Amino acid sequence: MAGIYIHIPFCRQACHYCSFHFSVSQRHKEGFLASLLREIELRHDFFGKPKMPGGKFRLDSVYLGGGTPSILGIEELNSIFKRLSEYFNFDQGNEITLEANPDDLTYEKLGALRQTPINRLSIGIQSFHEADLKYMNRVHTPGQAVNAVENALKLGFENLTIDLIYGTPTMNDAQWKENLQRTIDFGIQHISAYALTVEPKTALDVFIRRGQARPVEEEQSARQFEIMVEMLAGHGYEHYEISNFALPGKFSRHNLSYWTGKPYLGLGPSAHSFRGSERSWNPPNTTKYIQSIQKGILPLETEQLTPAQRYDEYLMTSLRTMWGCNLDKVKEGWGEKKREELEKQTRRYIEQGLMFESDCHLILTEKGRLFADRIASDLFWV
Ligand code: SF4
């Protein structure tokens, strides 16, 4: 089974830390939507031809991300689902996620969203504290965050995930625990939590360099990561990927397809697609995207992954998950010699308590997860 990601490149306000592709002007919204509908048509056979003549390809998940997809009106969202349903099969049994900002999720809008195929909301809360939201220049208030969650639950959304950010200089450990406790008390099924990172050339990067914003401390992030792991484990959440926690059975099916090498189709500017050993992406430029699609030309850039690139990607993603890196899969994909080499290379991490081997899988310990990226890059092909 496969998934579709749709990138909606509009936001109401620019968060200071953000390096995604988006625009705060909505003047291209109409042109973008028309192009997106056309792109669905142009790329509908990305996963291959359906087995039955006239049949449709079955999707496991659809994920509307961005940007801020909740900026779209109900009719606009329905036009996307209508076009998708002309070529693909998906229903309430599949995972249909909308990323949403709390300020968009009024009671009325949530009620209308319940009438669409969307059955999972990913709410960008980030923090329930005002000082953090201001530091990050988030558009919503703590009150809107609470109302959005309460109303979504009241209206019967049974599958909610929320985004939280830790390591913000305005947030002490006690406040971080409060954020986590609130999330737990709401009974939220899935949590994605990221350390605040300062990407080059973002507004936050400039403000910190000019001394206009407090810098982000790695030590604080590491400490708050540990607090989170302990607290969420104590409340039954499974830490199934470094930044993701879920109550039993509530893993994100869409994200799992990224991490397990399943094919996915990315639509919209900056969206990436993957199948077999091919990766492709639309450039992160909404104007060019619209112009190109209007001429019937896909603005895609494509790359064939080498065995070394596929190996590195597999290591990087699998080590981030609680299932770890499957040694049999390494043997199957890259040969017995590579498997032996990997086992030899990882011995020191096992001795240091950063990794363990179980049932032919190399898995990072909680301590090891703090260094996941570094460990994976040490083990890379080259
Ligand atoms: S809402 Fe999301 S995509 Fe938009 S600016 Fe903020 S972080 Fe970036």
Structural notes for this entry:
There is one protein chain. By secondary structure, the protein is an alpha/beta fold. It folds into 2 domains: 2-258, TIM Barrel (Alpha-Beta Barrel); 306-382, Arc Repressor Mutant, subunit A (Orthogonal Bundle), CATH 1.10.10. The chain contains 15 helices and 16 strands. It has helices spanning 29-42, 74-87, 107-113, 130-136, 142-154, 173-186, 203-209, 218-234, 253-259, 286-294, 307-319, 327-334, 336-351, 366-369, 372-378; strands at 2-8, 57-66, 88-89, 95-100, 120-126, 160-166, 190-195, 238-241, 244-246, 264-267, 272-275, 278-281, 301-304, 325-326, 355-358, 361-364. The strands form 3 sheets. Strands 1, 2, 3, 4, 5, 6, 7, 8, 9 and 10 form a 10-stranded mixed β-sheet that branches. It has a 3-stranded antiparallel β-sheet with strand order 11-12-13, with no helix packed on it. Strand 15 (355-358) and strand 16 (361-364) form a beta hairpin. Helix 1 packs parallel to helix 2, helix 1 (29-42) packs across helix 10 (286-294) and helix 6 (173-186) packs parallel to helix 8 (218-234). The model has no long low-confidence stretch (mean pLDDT 95). Bound molecules: iron/sulfur cluster. Residues 11, 14-15, 18, 20, 22, 66-68, 101, 124 line the site of iron/sulfur cluster (SF4). Iron/sulfur cluster binds next to loops.
Helix content: 40-55%
> Using DSSP, what is the number of strands?
16
| Contiguous helical run count | 15
Which hetero ligands occur in this complex? iron/sulfur cluster
CA gyration radius, whole angstroms: 21 Å
- Which secondary-structure class do the elements indicate? alpha/beta
CATH-assigned fold name of the largest domain: TIM Barrel
**Low-confidence segments:** none
C-alpha termini separation? 32 Å
Shape: globular
Q: What's the overall average pLDDT, rounded?
A: 95
What is the CATH architecture assignment of the largest domain?
Alpha-Beta Barrel
CATH homologous superfamily designation of the largest domain = Aldolase class I
